[in-house]
Every structure is written in structure tokens, then in C-alpha cells.
Amino acid sequence: MNNYQILTDSGSDLSQTILDELNVKRASLTVNFKGQTLADSVDEGIKDIYDGLRAGAAATTSAINPENWKDAMEPSLKEGKDLLVIAFSSGLSTTYQSAVIAANELMETYPDRQIRVVDSLCASLGQGLLVWYAAKKRDEGLSLDALTAWLEENKLHLCHWFTVDELSYLKRGGRVSAATALVGTMLNIKPVMRVDNEGHLVKFSTARGRKASIKAMADKLGETGIPGANDTCFICHGDCIEDAQLLANIIKEQHGVKEVHIGYTGAVIGSHSGPGTLALFFLGNQR
Questions:
Q1: Could you tell me which of 115, 141, 176, 181 has the fewest CB atoms within 10 Å of its CB?
Q2: What one-character-per-residue DSSP string does 190-201 give?
Q3: In whole angstroms, how far apart are CA 264 and each of 21, 30, 135, 216, 273?
């Protein structure tokens, strides 16, 4: 068996149950909410966060710093294991850069160990799907270096398509202008967005109404999905499970997807995208 541990961060929005099934460890970003500093999670308390956001509570978020990364990395190194770290997109957070700093410092302390840090250029369950593939490849016997190379070669095939229900959250984050948010809300216009090759969120198109935006995301799977590569797709949602199930049914019926994992958009990402966020992740020939 390969003697290395896969470590990711909470930007991947994977539940603890899935992390345990995959034998993957996690380091957590933080969210400051109602006077408390909380570990980013999709598990306990996530519904309360969305309820609070809907009620008008504000949230701020923090990346993982090098010391926090070292705390997450060091136990595996002490056990004599090498590390593969798959980090939240550098286009959205300083979490990846902090992981590199931590890895360089720890390799001085543990010169016999290897640490590979991959900038996933992914977010939420897009990053989670990349981690899922990594765990499968590890279990197939890929070495640390071979799996690192596979991730670098394939991460830009991990497609992220998403929409939001309320434009106000994107306005706060500077993703859309105040005028766009106002007009879009009045006309029930929903943005269809993606993550680009630099790991940034970018607007692709608009749709009139929620159902049209959901259909637009599903259509992207049909247009750019790699044939035969998407038996399993991931969907995340900002406390809108019915819409997530609708999207799952569409891609199963129209595009032959066999298995869909549905999970919450985590506290950190959800604080920026808002309740009603819905996203689809799959392997495509281009982002």
C-alpha cells in the first residue's frame, strides 16, 4: 500500500462521513458568525448558518494560515507518512499559498518525508470531486508522484457550473455591480456562472427564472462532459435540497449519470454565495 496521506481543506465541502470513507484528512477554514469563530463545515450547524443568513446576519471568513496547516500536516509526518495536499483554489483564497509555506517549513523538520501541494483551482464540491478521484486513484495503486501528476493533468477538466438565488451576496463580494443586482432581482434574472482556468468565479450567461438556470447547468454537462467519464457527478446546494434533487433527476434522465452525490455548500463558501446557491460538478473537455 502507498504510504502517503491525502489531506484537503474544508473548501472541498466534503462531509466527515465521506472523508472517513475515503481516508482523507481535512484542515478547516473559519467563519465568523454572530460573534463566534466557527470551523468551516457542511455537518453540524450548517442549517443554522443558512437560517441566520436568510434572517440578515452577516458572516466573514478566514483562510487557513501556515501554522494551522502545519498542525494538520504534522501528525501524518510523525507517523512516517508522506503527504498529498489538495488545496482550495488560489484564485479564491490564500489557503493554497499558506499550505506551500507550511510544507516547505515542515520538510526541513522532516527531511525524509515528501509533501506535494496541489492548487486544485477548484472550489466546493468541485474540489471535493477532485479529492474523490484522487482517493480512488490512490486505492488503485498510484504512487504519490504519479497521483500528483494525474491531478495536475486533470484538474482543469473539473467543471464547475453554478447559479445563485439572491444576487445581493455576489454584490457584497464584488462579483456583480449594485445596478446589476437591482435589475436582476427585479426581472428575476439568474446568473449562470463557472470557475475558470485560473480558479476564479466568472459569469457565463443569464437565465430568466430559477428553472431556466437549472436547465442551463444541466445542458453544460451535455455540451462539454467527457463521454463515459461522468457516471458519478456531485451537486452542492445552499439549503435548497429540492432544487438539487431536480437537477440530479435531470442529469440522470437526460445525460445518463448513474450516481449523484448531493451535499451542502459549506459555511465559508455559502457566506459569499448565499442561500439558494446551486452547483453542478463533472469532468469535461474544457471548463
A1: 141
A2: EEEEEE-TTS-E
A3: 18, 16, 21, 21, 12
